[in-house]
């Protein structure tokens, strides 16, 4: 049985999900390193491209499911106040710390 981490979703306050901890923290750490501190930030596509070269292949062979994990972590970090979205089109995201 794999260890689980509870994640939040900024778009659904109070709703949580349990996800694989190793995958969550791998993406979380890479995302927090990749995101600029402050606007204009990066689009979701740019975030995924920034993560891809450094993503652990044992957890994400050939980047499999990386898009889903990047979105899940981004929404959780927004809910926790570690990532903010700018009111741009397309949406951009940046770190707060």
From TrEMBL:
<dbReference type="Pfam" id="PF22278">
    <property type="entry name" value="DUF6958"/>
</dbReference>
<protein>
    <submittedName>
        <fullName>Uncharacterized protein</fullName>
    </submittedName>
</protein>
<dbReference type="InterPro" id="IPR054233">
    <property type="entry name" value="DUF6958"/>
</dbReference>
